[in-house]
Write a structure and sequence with these properties.
heterodimer, A: 519 residues, alpha/beta, Rossmann fold, four-stranded parallel β-sheet, B: 68% helix, Nase_asu (chain A)
C-alpha cells in the first residue's frame, strides 16, 4: 500500500494509514486511505460535529422553516453566519437563527418547559412561518429531554403548525457526516409521505444533495424547468418543508452530493421504487452528460440537447480564455467531501490545472474511491488532515492555489498560497455553464492577483523596485502566451453580471406553463 | 484479438469509467453489483445492436447511463467500430470483471458490507 507518512505526524503513527499517493499502475485495490473513523487523539482535526452536519449542512437550507437548536446559544450561532445557502424567500433561514439558550440550571432541572416556551414564542414572532425543525444538541441529549413529546404537545395545541425533530447531538458520529446520515433517515421516517403533492408535469424529479450555495440550485432548476421537468422538491437548498414531505411521488431522484444525501435516495429507492441517478452539476462535459441522461430518462433528450448547445455556445469561449491562462497550474483540492470527486477530473480537463492533492475532512472511503479514481497518478490523497499536515503538504507540493474551507484557507494565506472557498465559494454560483466560468475566473484572480508578488517583498530587507510600474493580473498571466492566444478574437473574459441568479426568479417557462394548463 | 490487446482495450474502457462516471461507486456491495450488471450489460447490448430492456424505472435508469457510456466509447475509441459482436462481448465481459474487481471484490472500502444505508 502506497501510504504516505507525514513528518509532522510521526508521533501519531495511526495517521499513516490516512494518506496515500497513487503510483504508476496502482488502482483502488491497493491505494485507498482509511476514512470516516473517529479522529485520533493528538491530531487537531478540521472536522465539524454531527449536530453541525445535521443542522448547518442539511437542515437549515430548508427555506420556510424556523430552525431552532435545543441547547446553548453557541451551538446555533457558531458557523451559522458563515453559510451562503441563499433562498428565494428573502433568505429567511440565513437571516434568522434560533436557540433555546440552555443554561446550567436547565441541565440540572431539565429544559422541556424552556423548549416549549421557545417554540411558541418563535411561532408568534414569525406568524407567517408554520414549520419548524428542532435540533437536539449534546446538552439536551445528555439530560434526556423528550423533544418529540414536547413537539407533539405543541402540534396538538397549534394544529396549523408542523414540527420535525432531528436527534443528532454533536457526539453522534466521528464528524459532521454522522449528522448528515441521521437527518436523512429521520426525515424519511418522520415526514416523507405525510403530504400529497400536486403533480403538474409528466416529468417529476426530486433534486437531492443540493444546497443552493450562492444559487447553485436555482441555476440547475432553471435547466430543469426549461426542459419541462417539475422539481417536486430539493433536498434541501432553497427547498420547501412541505414539498419535501411529498418526495415519495417523484419519478426520479437526481442526486448531486452523494456524500450527504445518498441515504435518503437509497431509502426512497427501497421504500418507493424511485430510481437514483447520480449527476455532476459542475463542468461543461459532466453537466451536459447529466442533462442528457435526465432527458433520456423522460424521453425529452432533444430539450436537453437544445440547452446544452445554447449554453455551450454562449459560455465555452469564456471558459477557454481562462483555460489558456491556467494550464499547468498546480491545485490542492481540499474540500469537505463531495467536491473532491465532482471537481478532480473536470478541472484538469476543462481548465488545464494539475490536481496534486485531494483531501476530505469528513468523507468516507467511498468518496476517496471516487476522488482517487478521478485524479492523475502521483496525487496525494489525505483523509481527515490536521493543520500541520496541510502545511507540510503545501511545502512539499508547492501548489499555486488551494480550494478549501475558510479556516484552512486562512492558514494557507499565511504561507502565501492563495485559496478559494470550496464550501461557500468566492463569487459563485459555480454550478451551471456560467457558474463554471465564474469558478475559472475566481481561480484566475486568486493565482494572478498582483498582491502575491507585492506581499513577497519584505520592506525591511528587500530592495523595492522603483523603476517598474504596478503589474496587473493580465500582465502576469499573459507573459508566456503566444500572440495567437493573447490576441484571439474567439476567446474572451467573463462577461456575465455580478448577480447571475436573481434574474432567474423572474423567468417564465413555456413547457411548464403548457403542462400546467393541461392539468 | 490476443490477450495483451484485450487487456489494453479493457484498461482504456475502465479508465474512462473511473474518470467520468459515478454509477459504479454506490455505497454498498449489493448496489454496486446491480449497478455494474445493469449498466454494463445494457452498454454491451447497445454496442452489439441488441434490444435493451428499459420499461421499469430501474431499467430505464441503468439504460440512460448505458446510452451515454456507449456513445462515449464509440466516439473516443475508434477500434470499437472494427470489432464484431463476439469481440465486443469479450471486451465487455473483461471490462465487467475488472470493474467488479476494482469496485467490489478487490475494494478496500470497509463500508461496502454495512447492512443498512
Amino acid at each position: 500500500m502506497p501510504y504516505h507518512k507525514f513528518k509532522c505526524s510521526e508521533c501519531i503513527p495511526e495517521r499513516e494509514k490516512h494518506a496515500v499517493m497513487k503510483g504508476p499502475g496502482e488502482d483502488l485495490s491497493c491505494a485507498l486511505p482509511l476514512g470516516y473513523l473517529n479522529t485520533i487523539p493528538g491530531t487537531i482535526s478540521e472536522r465539524g460535529c454531527a449536530y453541525c452536519g445535521a443542522k448547518h449542512v442539511i437542515g437549515t437550507p430548508m427555506k420556510d422553516v424556523i430552525h431552532i437548536s435545543h441547547g446553548p446559544v453557541g451551538c446555533t450561532y457558531d458557523t451559522w453566519q458563515t453559510k451562503r445557502y441563499i433562498s428565494d424567500n428573502d433568505n429567511f433561514q440565513i437571516k434568522n437563527t434560533f436557540a433555546t439558550d440552555m443554561k446550567e440550571k436547565h441541565i440540572i432541572f431539565g429544559a422541556e418547559k424552556l423548549l416549549k416556551q421557545n417554540i411558541v414564542e418563535a411561532f408568534k414572532a414569525f406568524p407567517n412561518i408554520k414549520r419548524m425543525t428542532i435540533y437536539q444538541t449534546c446538552a439536551s441529549a445528555l439530560i434526556g429531554d423528550d423533544i418529540n413529546a414536547v413537539a407533539q404537545e405543541v402540534m396538538d395545541e397549534m394544529p396549523e403548525v408542523d414540527i420535525f425533530v432531528c436527534n443528532s447531538p454533536g457526539f453522534a458520529g466521528p464528524s459532521q457526516s454522522g449528522g448528515h446520515h441521521k437527518i436523512n433517515i429521520a426525515w424519511i421516517n418522520q415526514k416523507v409521505g405525510t403530504v400529497e403533492p400536486k403533480i403538474t408535469s409528466d416529468y417529476v424529479i426530486n433534486y437531492v444533495g443540493e444546497y443552493n450555495i450562492q444559487g447553485d440550485q436555482e441555476v440547475m432548476q432553471d435547466y430543469f424547468k426549461r426542459m419541462g421537468i417539475q422539481v417536486l422538491s430539493t433536498f434541501t437548498g432553497n427547498g420547501s418543508y412541505d414539498d419535501l414531505r411529498g418526495m415519495h411521488r417523484a419519478h426520479l431522484n437526481v442526486l448531486e452530493c452523494a456524500r450527504s444525501a445518498e441515504y435518503i435516495c437509497n431509502e426512497l429507492r427501497v421504500r418507493y421504487g424511485i430510481p437514483r441517478l447520480d449527476i455532476d452539476g459542475f463542468g461543461f462535459e459532466p453537466l451536459s452528460a447529466s442533462l442528457r441522461k435526465i432527458g433520456l430518462f423522460f424521453g425529452i433528450e432533444d430539450r436537453a440537447q437544445a440547452i446544452i448547445d445554447e449554453e455551450t455556445a454562449r459560455w465555452k469561449p469564456e471558459l477557454d480564455w481562462y483555460k489558456e491562462r491556467l494550464k499547468g497550474k498546480k491545485v490542492c483540492l481540499w474540500p469537505g467531501g463531495s467536491k473532491l470527486w465532482h471537481w478532480a477530473n473536470v478541472i484538469h480537463e476543462e481548465m488545464g490545472v494539475e490536481v496534486v492533492s485531494v483531501y476530505t475532512k469528513f468523507g468516507h472511503q467511498g468518496d476517496m474511491e471516487k476522488g482517487i479514481a478521478r485524479c492523475e497518478e502521483g496525487a496525494l490523497a489525505i483523509d481527515d488532515p490536521n493543520e500541520l499536515e496541510g502545511l507540510e503538504a503545501m511545502e512539499k507540493l508547492k501548489p499555486d492555489v488551494i480550494f478549501t474551507g475558510k479556516r484552512p484557507g486562512e492558514v494557507a494565506k499565511k504561507v502565501r498560497v492563495p485559496y478559494l472557498n470550496a464550501h461557500a465559494y468566492h463569487n459563485g454560483p459555480y454550478k451551471g455553464y456560467e457558474g463554471w466560468v465564474r469558478f475559472a475566473r475566481d481561480i484566475y484572480n486568486a493565482i494572478y492577483s498582483p498582491i502575491h508578488q507585492l506581499s513577497a517583498l519584505d520592506i525591511s530587507k528587500d530592495e523595492i523596485p522603483t523603476d517598474k510600474g504596478f503589474a496587473t493580473a493580465k500582465m502576469i498571466s499573459d507573459v508566456n502566451l503566444s500572440d495567437e492566444v493573447r490576441n484571439s478574437t474567439d476567446l474572451r473574459e467573463y462577461t456575465g453580471g455580478y448577480d447571475s441568479v436573481s434574474k432567474l426568479r423572474e423567468k417564465t417557462y413555456p413547457y411548464m406553463e403548457k403542462q400546467l394548463a393541461d392539468v | 484479438m490476443g490477450e495483451d490487446l484485450l487487456k489494453a482495450r479493457v484498461a482504456q474502457l475502465e479508465n474512462y469509467i473511473m474518470k467520468k462516471c459515478l454509477w459504479q461507486f454506490h455505497s454498498r456491495a449489493w448496489d454496486r453489483e446491480k449497478q455494474n450488471e445493469g449498466i454494463l450489460t445494457k452498454t454491451m447490448q447497445i454496442l452489439c445492436g441488441e434490444p435493451v430492456e428499459k420499461e421499469s424505472p430501474a431499467d430505464r435508469c441503468y439504460w440512460v447511463d448505458a446510452v451515454c457510456l456507449a456513445d462515449a466509447y464509440k466516439s473516443k475509441f475508434d477500434w470499437i467500430s472494427s470489432l464484431n459482436t463476439n469481440e465486443i462481448k469479450r471486451v465487455m465481459q473483461g471490462l465487467k470483471e475488472r470493474i467488479d474487481f476494482v469496485t467490489i471484490s478487490g475494494s478496500l472500502n470497509e463500508e461496502l458490507t454495512v447492512q443498512q444505508y
